[in-house]
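Propose amino acids for all 114 sites.
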């Protein structure tokens, strides 16, 4: 399951002591295609997707807390969770079926073409 860790995150983890806290972005698989009958209005769809995301992260949040970490942010729109956890425990998140990728936080950059 190590394939879920990006190269950048693997490099960060190698440079850390086991107990050092690391900020990680947990990208979840998008599952709305598997969801039954998504509501049709924009507001209903947004509410439905937020609710589905919140249900999906419950077991992940429990695992993060159990291994000594904490969720520091979440974004339902792109199905990500930001967490801070001990470096030696990051790979345990790969065991979750919902987890698509584990990465380091990346700053947003302004588009310079405009």
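Proposal:
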């Amino acid at each position: 399951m190590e394939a879920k860790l990006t190269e950048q995150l693997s490099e960060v983890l190698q440079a850390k002591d086991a107990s050092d806290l690391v900020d990680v972005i947990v990208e979840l698989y998008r599952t709305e295609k598997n969801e039954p009958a998504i509501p049709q209005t924009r507001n209903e769809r947004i509410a439905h997707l937020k609710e589905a995301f919140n249900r999906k992260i419950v077991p992940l949040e429990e695992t993060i807390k159990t291994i000594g970490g904490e969720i520091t942010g979440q974004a339902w729109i792109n199905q990500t969770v930001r967490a801070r956890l001990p470096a030696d425990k990051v790979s345990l998140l790969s065991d979750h079926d919902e987890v698509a990728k584990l990465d380091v936080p990346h700053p947003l950059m302004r588009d310079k073409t405009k």
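The mean pLDDT is 89. The chain has one domain: 2-103.
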